[in-house]
Amino acid sequence: MAGKPKLHYFNGRGRMESIRWLLASAGVEFEEKFIETPEDLDKLKNDGNLMFQQVPMVEIDGMKMVQTRAILNYIATKYNLYGKDIKERALIDMYIEGMADLNEMILVLPLCPPDQKEAKIAQIKEKVTDRYLPVFEKVLKSHGQDYLVGNRLSRADIHLVELLYYVEELDPSLMANFPLLKALKTRISNLPPVKKFLQPGSQRKPPISEEDLEKARKIFRIK
Ligand SMILES: N[C@@H](CCC(=O)N[C@@H](CS)C(=O)NCC(=O)O)C(=O)O
């Protein structure tokens, strides 16, 4: 039997957090090997473990997988969270690519120069309420079902709920006009594996601290 997937990344959300969410929601236990220093990253690179010299890297089923989307696609397919046919998958892909665009804006926010941060946050908030959340509220309203696609749990629900937690961290009032999204968040959060992942002490990562941001800048040599 294959061992637990092993996740190689720094001890923070970054690009690995959606992978943690997806594995945990599928009820899959995983190990983490944290990159603590630039030398740790160099070692992974020099040992030939990183196809593009980048992390996230996930050891799974005898592979050393890189590229966040490829990893997520593999996990979603393996655990049957990617729709029942190509049309459901197409819908899921459209939804999650939109979510990924918003997620990326939130992900890079800590790297924003302090004098531009306020404007950036305002821009993100506007996109949240005027572009992204209305799409998913409308989807739920249109079919009246408990999940975004195919009346059953898919990665689209999991990625969206992860994103809704970040939106709430940014400003809880952003969710005020989206009752169906709030209900989805509660429903998915109560699924036993997700509930477990949301408990304190799980492998879910908190918002990045200034100290960890500095550490990440050093590891990834970000100016
Ligand atoms: N497209 C890649 C981007 C990965 C990426 O940018 N990784 C950063 C850390 S979040 C990295 O490894 N930077 C080091 C480098 O590029 O040398 C993915 O989605 O996995």
UniProtKB/TrEMBL annotation:
InterPro entries reported in the protein's UniProt record: Glutathione-S-Trfase_C-like (IPR010987), Glutathione-S-Trfase_C_sf (IPR036282), Glutathione_S-Trfase (IPR040079), Glutathione_S-Trfase_N (IPR004045), GST_alpha (IPR003080), GST_C (IPR004046), GST_superfamily (IPR050213), Thioredoxin-like_sf (IPR036249)
Presence of keyword Transmembrane helix: no
Database matches in CDD domains: GST_C_Alpha, GST_N_Alpha
GST N-terminal domain location is 3-83
Under catalytic activity, the entry for this protein gives: RX + glutathione = an S-substituted glutathione + a halide anion + H(+)
In its UniProt record, which GO terms are filed under biological process? glutathione metabolic process; xenobiotic metabolic process
PROSITE patterns listed in its UniProt record: GST_CTER, GST_NTER
In Pfam terms, one family for this protein is GST_N
Q: Name one GO cellular component term.
A: extracellular exosome
> What UniProt keywords apply to this chain's record, in alphabetical order?
Transferase
Keyword Transferase included in the entry's annotation: yes
Q: Which residues form the GST C-terminal domain?
A: 85-208
Give the EC number(s) under which this enzyme is classified.
2.5.1.18
- Give a GO molecular function annotation for the protein: glutathione transferase activity
Per the record, the similarity remark reads: Belongs to the GST superfamily. Alpha family.
State the name under which the record lists this protein. Glutathione S-transferase
Protein encoded by which gene? LOC122220024
